[in-house]
Amino acid sequence: MSKIKLEKIRIESTCATYPEQYEAFCDGQHIGYLCIRGGKFRVYYGPNVNGKLLYEATVGNSRCTLFNSSYQRAHHLKQAKEMLYNAMVQEIIDKVVDRIQDGTLPHPGDGMLYKDDPRTRIRLGG
User: What angle do CA 5, 6, 12 make, to 5 degrees?
Assistant: First the structure.
């Protein structure tokens, strides 16, 4: 994955003490919530903890609310960025596929997209 693409994702600490938690942004848009609770580091895609769980890793015992080292923190925050980036890309792909399937995405050739037009057919799942 391109370092430039990962650099677009900014992770800001919202609580550096207990528990350690972060918010993630891309181009000024809030895209994720990251936290350590009960020894688990979790990454959610969406505005808060109610978003889609993308990543979970054990970082300590059940009472742990902080990373154990700066190396561990850097490793898991990099993983978080990769997961968030992949989720954003997948969301775009899903929207395009939906529009192709329902015929609402204009074809570059004529500005219209037709469900029966072979130029718009895609294969899903094999």
Answer: 135
* Look-up of token digits 């939906």: 98
Rg (CA), the chain: 19
Using an 8 Å Cβ cutoff, are 57 and 76 in contact?
A: yes
Domain boundaries, the chain: 3-120
Query: Which one, of 19, 7, 11, lies nearest residue 67 by Cα?
Result: 19
Structure token digits, residue 37: 């609770």
Name residue, tokens 């902080």. Answer: 66
Instruction: Give the model confidence (pLDDT) of 110-121 as tens digits.
Output: 555 555 555 555
More confident residue, 47 or 30: 30
* pLDDT confidence tier of residue 95, bands split at 50, 70 and 90: confident
Alpha carbon 87 to its chain centroid, in Å, reads 4
Which contacts qualify for 9-13: CB closer than 8 Å, 24 or more apart? 9/81, 9/84, 9/85, 11/77, 11/80, 11/81
| pLDDT of res. 42 | 95
Give CA separation, 96 vs 26, 91, 120, 121, in Å.
20, 9, 11, 12
